[in-house]
Write a structure and sequence with these properties.
This protein is of the alpha/beta class and 222 residues long. The chain folds into two domains: 77 residues; 119 residues, Lyase, Ornithine Decarboxylase, Chain A, domain 1, CATH 2.40.37.10. It is built from seven helices and 13 strands. The strands form four sheets. It has a six-stranded antiparallel beta sheet with strand order 9-10-11-8-5-12, with no helix packed on it. A three-stranded parallel beta sheet has the order 2-3-4. Strands 1-13 form a two-stranded parallel sheet. Helix 1 packs across helix 3. The relative contact order is 0.18. One of its GO terms (molecular function) is alanine racemase activity. Pfam families: Ala_racemase_C.
């Protein structure tokens, strides 16, 4: 999900910080080229950096100046709401990566889940199978180390992350099929999770948002 209000706020903050050429390569880091180009142009950017002459022409038809050469000077952390080089929050995150609860299951103490049984329940609990796996950018290194947000509370990813799903320990909290599962972004406790992901995976925030931006279904919210 891409937040229109966070995108507008990030574009404004980035341009006010002094930038004039925004880096919109890789489909605006997975956020959607046209929408981000419109936002930064409205905020005062003079041009945007893109990947191909075809994108330059497509944006020209929208009245936006684009180039495939030169260096960007708009701070991408401010624009996209990513953590700073020090891992600190900047502007509100523009992207919120969301899955859904597919099913729930009681797990007895000692029982294991997912490939290789890298997680065994220390006590009786309930786990949820949720959409989102390494094909959608939920990096395998996050299994047994990162949390997700369900109904305003954090719950751990347990076991290995599979291609299109992963398992969450609900730790006694209720969950229904179809409930939203936030991996990072939004305004709740998972808002700044991308910084933790960067620590765990040794990937940059740019890489972590570009992968789901390219492979997950994109939607828009206020």
């Amino acid at each position: 999900m891409i937040s229109r209000s966070a995108l507008a706020a990030g574009a404004s903050a980035a341009i006010q910080a002094g930038g004039r050429r925004a880096d919109l390569r890789r489909d605006a880091w997975g956020h959607g080229l046209l929408a981000v180009a419109q936002a930064v142009t409205a905020a005062g950017a003079e041009e945007v950096l893109v990947d191909s002459p075809g994108e330059v022409e497509a944006l020209r038809l929208e009245g936006i100046t684009a180039t495939i050469t030169g260096e960007p000077d708009v701070d991408p952390a401010l624009l996209y709401g990513l953590p700073s080089a020090e891992g600190l929050p900047t502007t509100p995150p523009v992207m919120r990566l969301v899955g859904r609860v597919m099913s729930t299951k009681r797990l007895r103490a000692g029982e294991a889940v997912s490939y290789g049984y890298t997680f065994r329940a220390a006590a009786d609990t309930t786990v949820a199978l949720v959409t989102g796996g390494y094909a959608q950018g939920i990096v395998r290194a996050l299994g047994n180390h990162a949390d997700v947000e369900i109904d305003g509370a954090l719950h751990p990813i347990v076991g290995r992350v599979a291609m299109d799903v992963c398992v969450i320990d609900l730790q006694g909290a209720p969950a229904e099929v179809g409930d939203a599962v936030t991996y990072f972004g939004g305004t709740g406790p998972a808002s700044g999770a991308i910084a933790r992901w960067a620590e765990l995976t040794r990937m940059t925030p740019a890489e972590l948002v570009a992968v789901p931006g390219a492979h997950a279904v994109r939607g828009w919210e206020a």
